[in-house]
Amino acid sequence: MVFVAEPVARLVEALSKLPGIGPKSAHRLTYHILDSPDEEARALAEAIVALKEKIRLCSTCFNVTDCDPCVICRDSERDSSRVCVVERPSDIVPLERTGKYKGLYHVLHGSISPAQGIGSEQLKVRELLTRLENGAVKEVILATNPNLEGEATAMYLRRVVTSPDIRVSRLARGLPFGAELEYADDMTLSQAIEGRQEF
Amino acid sequence: MGAPRSYQTQALIIGQFKLGEVDKIVTIYTPEFGKLKAVAKGAYRPGSKLGGNVELLTHSLMMLARGRNLDIVTQSQTIDAFTELKGDLWRMACGLYVLELVDSFTVENDEDRPLFDLLLDALRWLSQSDHSEIVLRYFELQVLNYVGYRPELYRCAVCGSPVKPVVNFFSSDRGGVLCPRCGQKDALSSAISVDALKILRLWQSCDYATARRVVLRRGLALELEQVTCQYINYLLQREVKSMAWLHELRRSQMVVDNGRARN
Ligand SMILES: [Zn+2]
Ligand SMILES: [Zn+2]
User: Fold this and answer.
1) Shortest Cα–Cα distance, A48 to chain B (Å)
2) CB distance from B242 to chain A under 8 Å?
3) How many whole angstroms separate alpha carbon A165 and alpha carbon A187?
4) Among A151, A183, A186, whose Cβ lies nearest the Cβ of B49?
5) Are the C-beta atoms of residues A169 and A158 closer than 8 Å to each other?
């Protein structure tokens, strides 16, 4: 049996629970941390603790934030007549990176998955509908994932956002960049044909 | 001589969950091997050749390679994407319920060609027909036949006397209908109307072309749903989760309809 000091084993175990990190990487990271200066290791530990202590959900859009309302919701430069609905807080990052969108967000915290027992009540759907009640929002952009659960979620939201004053749009779907036509699945291809644009 | 390292099969994708960041574990139902779990590597990566070809509610032709634990999907070519199911909230919900039912009542590596054919048929019926309630109930009764839980609908499951055309009772734990005398003594059984019993008997043994000719009143449809779902929940010792979503959709549709009526 190989002897490993208890604190080492403990960190290896904790790290290997992270996504994309197997036992080998966990070992490598553990010994890297062990070799690094004390203050660096302490900063890492404190960052992790602060993440869990200071981060909560924005009471308006349910994005993760350290202040409430979050920086996006409190930014008066942004277009508050548009709300983009996403499944996860992490979906906001790539959308922001495009620099093309200046409206607000709403995070559902999941998507409808009947076999997992997740319906609208397990998501921030009621909160979205409440948010739309005052009439300030003119467009809801559905940016749920282009898969079965994301489609179900979008179709459901399309149904329950009933105000005639609110335009409901969906992110364009179709062929992903870098893909080859030959390997596209039927669903993607048929959506790409239906959603074709002037060129 | 070992088993071949790779093989091809038709597959209906009946379950899925995410493994790590981009991999997907699919549960498939096949004609030759029954239910299997397999890994679709990179399926969640944009532009993956597997992607939509290993999505729930898809009938495909798969190449699989034997893996140490789970087999690996190396190719998947869609035969039918069931776009009519995926493009409609209610039909999709019905389709997902049918998949979950098969997943719940089967074990892995237990070949059952007729059940594969029934499942494929049910998805086609749901795509084409507006009688989704009939498809669901008919499918449930047929699945119960196939997996050995065919409810007894002709003789009282307690005293054995032939059931008469009056209001009788249905008992999930007895696995069938009870005569009024036995039913009244069984607190867990619930009343079943003459019409509901007649339809259950018909659907238990007829083909789909006959089954779909039944005209269902709303009340009768709900009664039938209650009987079959209670029985299924009893057999599985839990609820079929997708059923809750069907109920939620039905409620939300009523809210939307009422809203329109008021405007
Ligand atoms: Zn916010
Ligand atoms: Zn009896």
Assistant:
1) 21
2) yes
3) 31
4) A183
5) no
The structure tokens listed for B118 are 């029934």
| Residue whose C-alpha is closest to residue B145's, from B216, B200, B214 | B200
Give B242's contacts in chain A (Cβ within 8 Å): 114-115
Distance, in Å, from the CA atom of B108 to the CA atom of B209, rounded to the nearest integer, reads 31
Rounded CA-CA distance B52/B86 in Å is: 12
Q: Is residue B142 part of a domain?
A: yes
A36-85 pLDDT, tens digit each: 999 999 999 999 998 888 889 999 999 999 999 999 999 999 999 999 99
**Per-residue pLDDT reduced to its tens digit, B151-192:** 999 999 999 999 999 999 999 999 999 999 999 999 999 999
Residue B213 within a domain: yes
Instruction: Pull the structure tokens for residue A107.
Output: 């995070």
Same domain for B29 and B133, yes or no, is no
A140 contacts A167 by C-beta, under 8 angstroms: yes
All CATH 1.10.8.420 domain ranges in chain A, comma separated: 6-54
- CATH 3.40.1360.10 in chain A, residues? 57-198
**CATH number of this structure's domain A6-54, picked from the four choices 3.40.50.300, 1.50.10.10, 1.10.8.420, 1.10.3720.10:** 1.10.8.420
Closest CA to B124 of B170, B82, B69: B82
User: What is the residue-wise DSSP string for A43-71?
Assistant: HHHHHHHHHHHH-EE-TTT--EESSSS-H
Put simply, whether B34 touches A (Cβ < 8 Å) is no
Strands B6-19 and A167-170, by their bridges, are unpaired
Fold of A57-198: Dna Topoisomerase Vi A Subunit; Chain: A, domain 2 (3.40.1360)
Closest residue of A to B92, CA-based? A152
The answer, for A196 touching chain B at a CB cutoff of 8 Å, is no
